[in-house]
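ok so dumb question maybe but i'm new to this and my supervisor (M.) told me to 'just get the structure for Glycosyltransferase RgtA/B/C/D-like domain-containing protein' and walked off. so i did the thing. is this what she meant?? sequence i used:
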Amino acid sequence: MKRAPTRDILWLFLATRLLLLLVTYFGYILLTQGKYSASPVAFNTLLTNWDQWDAKMYVRIAQTGYHPPYDLAFFPLFSLLISIPGHLLGNWSYFPLGMLISNLAFLGSLFIIYQLVIDAGGEQVARRTILYLCLFPTAFFFFTAYNEALFLLLSTGTFLALRRQKWWLAGVLGLLSALTRNTGVLLAIPYLYELWLARESVLTSKRKCAGSLIPIALIPSGTALYGIYNWMLTGNFLTFASVQSHWSRQLSWPWQPFIQTIFELFWHQPFGSFNQVQILIDAGMTITFIILAWIGYKKLRLTYTIWITLLLLSFILSPSLGQRDAFISSRRFVLEIFPAFITLAMISIKRPRLHQALLWIFPALLATLSLLFIMGKWMV
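this is what came out, is it supposed to look like this??
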């Protein structure tokens, strides 16, 4: 088993963190301070500008606990990890701790993904996969206090444990994933498929069979534990699901968000409107990752295609039909679909011009969208 290049991954991680800090420093100051102003901007002001949108929710839950019912849409593990040291350090520490946890989780994810991709496509593909993930236009969600990085760490860790046939470790990591995001419970399906592939070795003894079958129950147990907590607070085991309508999400047929998107883009929204650009971002990313899933079907291990399909369906079947942008937050959700980045890396190796284009386009969009985020613009 080839070891990940620690030094190279650390440099990539630190370089992209530096890029985001530079965007924060130059962008925020130049856009908010008066012309020829000599007034300084405090460092903590620059830092707290990353405390936007869902980050505020996770930090508030960590600090004061859940305010049912609507807070229960936010799964607990990320806020819990913030709250434990936060209660010891004081109120000032909650948001910085959230950022620290998110960044450390993302760094760990890079090492795990590299190891997974070495098995799937070799060293060059592995290097490009983590490069694209770091530079992706919405990768700033891994920098602030969102739970995307933690979920990526735990879900990729589950896949690596499955590949190594460490069933108990996969079960525990799957349980933690299910406590981090509602889609974590879906890891039980790739687990079952990997178990099927390993059936010959698993069925050699009763001990091996039990040791591989029992841990799968841990994954839905994470969702069940959170359901019990929901029931204790509200009397409803599924409050975390029922409150999704408050956040404008509802179950629908898979074609409904696409039809709404077409009507919004070509009939309802005037050219160059704010809504039109937002719809283009989310719909464009959704369609791009559907295409990557299709291309990757013959290139990747079927377990990865199953995972891509499950994650795509999770937000296609629960769109925001009550808003103009039916695919709202898809720009963020696609970050969790790590196998699509493997496919993109494989494609770019055969198409050098694509790689060169991505090296220009991704950082430019990352800087632009990051700046919009810290300015409090609609970027969720």
